[in-house]
Please model this.
Amino acid sequence: MAEVRQVYRILLRTVRDRISSRNQNSIWHDYIVEEFHRNATEKNPAKVQELLRLAKDYAQLVQGVNYEKELLLSYNIGIDPEERQRSMIERTANLVGLQLPIVPTDAESRGLT
Model:
């Protein structure tokens, strides 16, 4: 019973934090509550373990997809490496309350613009 409660809480917390809060869109929350209540009377231990494993796997999947998405956004995939590095340095400086000086680009320093 404790394992069921633990998985239930993990799944609800994951959906709330990673997909949408209950106030914004309660469909996911309501579905999870409904599924757990529907299977609460299940007596077959193998079936219960299978359902718990499925719930744990889904929570890990949602957490993993969210983590991967955050990683890709932090890497700024799609921009050139120099611009990515400049952007990361600027964000780091902004986090500690500093502002970087404006540095001319290569084209500006050569007088091409």
Observations:
- Residues 103 and 109 are 9 Å apart (CA to CA).
